């Protein structure tokens, strides 16, 4: 179902009145973790003013250590929904457990499947039983074939609204957190009709390089980007080192739009 052989034309995914894979680049932006209602509203207003269509923010966080902050849970989803109410931004947030599908879909516009859960097949099947758009991140140790098969798990349950997201893979390189696999963008577009975004924040892992890689992802053909933004990245509860300030984000969004026009 994800294959271009089955569906020759590009698929677009509608979220609110924005079309992912349409004539303007999709920009999803926000904090790695939802922290507070006021802080989230400040970010939401700023990214909206800079042209983002969607607000990202983790309420359930897949942290490497069980002792790290695990997210605010449903409380965080309430803050996200309030930010949508005020700004009109669509909401993107991660789901980690099949049992939480009904609860989380009642707050969000796009369900994010994180890299660590790309092959959580019970979770893929559960989100496949909804019609809510799913942002399917590539696992950091998964092949393109495995990634597309995970899309297949969702689509075969009846949900055609899958958006792929390249978020970097593990390589031997140590100067970057991951290696954003730009190769994957044209390859996936050849193999599949689904829209593909890039996540340069996790993809490279350092704020100073994020704008360059956002541009590179768009130049490679991505339909848009998802990036981490915080007013004070050094104080962010997670992923501060790769998080853009509000001003850096505004500049990045402009560069993404300019690059998109050239592709
Ligand atoms: C995130 O978006 O904050 C996240 C945890 O992403 P990934 O699953 O790509 O690591
Ligand atoms: Mn993060």
Automatic annotation (TrEMBL):
Entry annotated with the keyword Transferase: yes
E.C. code: 2.5.1.54
Keywords assigned by UniProt, alphabetized: Transferase
One GO molecular-function entry: 3-deoxy-7-phosphoheptulonate synthase activity
Ranges where the DAHP synthetase I/KDSA domain occurs: 17-263
This protein's record includes keyword RNA-binding: no
Domain of life: Bacteria
Protein name: 3-deoxy-7-phosphoheptulonate synthase
Organism: Alicyclobacillus dauci
Annotated gene: aroF
